[in-house]
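Bumping my old thread because nobody answered last time. Still need a sequence for this structure:
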């Protein structure tokens, strides 16, 4: 899959994100829905008494709560300018596509992770002049782990004064907890530090999203300007294609292969 030049990489701290593109003509498309059903609750109790002179039976039974949700699945194939046919599978997005339309898929991956995996960001339909978001900047930030909110660390900071208060109450007559009585304003300073940490992290995530969105907008515009028209099939392309066909034919056992290139 063709990669954008390194100059298009997105760098945030120690993370470097690479971007890829698949461009070609849609040759087949299939869209369907998967329905997931969940059931919660339900059940009850039944009891009573039966003896020689009668009895009674009673209880309560509640019906389970059933919920369902449908997920759109979209699978289609594209043929690249080099003649390769590539499958693309999308989930949770509903994008109109027609066979014969030229599209570009943009994907992002962590450069440090050496595996064939990426998250699609956009689908650009050059014929229709539209662009569709597949993964938002929030989803990319979560998947690529660029700027994360450490809920565990924040929870510990918030829990510390509460735990100290409980310990003091369990160990004797009530007195203000340690954090509030060492220095008169230490407790307020501590809570201000926690608030500052939370607000700073939210602001950092917000700045990252704006920066990443601007970067993605630039990639979309570049793709529209450079991938909208089919590449011209040059003589060099023809020779390369002929050589590949010749090698494949020989690999299948052909003893004589003739390649003809018409001008």
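Sorry it took so long. Here it is:
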């Amino acid at each position: 899959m063709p990669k954008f030049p390194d100059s298009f990489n997105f760098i945030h701290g120690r993370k470097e994100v690479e971007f890829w593109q698949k461009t070609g003509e849609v040759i087949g498309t299939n869209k369907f829905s998967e329905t997931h059903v969940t059931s919660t609750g339900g059940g009850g109790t039944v009891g009573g008494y039966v003896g020689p002179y009668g009895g009674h039976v009673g209880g309560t039974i509640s019906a389970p709560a059933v919920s369902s949700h449908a997920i759109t699945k979209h699978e289609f194939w594209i043929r690249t300018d080099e003649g390769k046919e590539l499958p693309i599978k999308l989930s949770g997005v509903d994008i109109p596509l027609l066979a014969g339309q030229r599209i570009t898929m943009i994907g992002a991956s962590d450069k440090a992770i050496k595996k064939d995996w990426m998250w699609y960001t956009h689908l650009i339909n050059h014929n229709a002049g539209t662009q569709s978001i597949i993964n938002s900047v929030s989803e990319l930030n979560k998947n690529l782990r660029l700027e994360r909110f450490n809920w565990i660390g924040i929870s510990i900071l918030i829990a510390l004064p509460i735990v100290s208060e409980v310990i003091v109450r369990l160990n004797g007559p009530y007195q203000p907890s340690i954090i509030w009585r060492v220095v008169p304003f230490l407790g307020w300073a501590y809570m201000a530090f926690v608030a500052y940490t939370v607000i700073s992290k939210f602001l950092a995530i917000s700045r990252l999203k704006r920066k990443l969105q601007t970067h993605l907008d630039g990639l979309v515009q570049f793709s529209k300007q450079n991938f909208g028209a089919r590449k011209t099939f040059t003589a060099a392309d023809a020779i390369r294609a002929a050589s590949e066909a010749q090698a494949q034919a020989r690999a299948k056992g052909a003893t004589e292969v003739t390649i003809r290139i018409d001008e």
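The first strand starts at residue 10 and ends at 12. Let me know if any region looks off to you.
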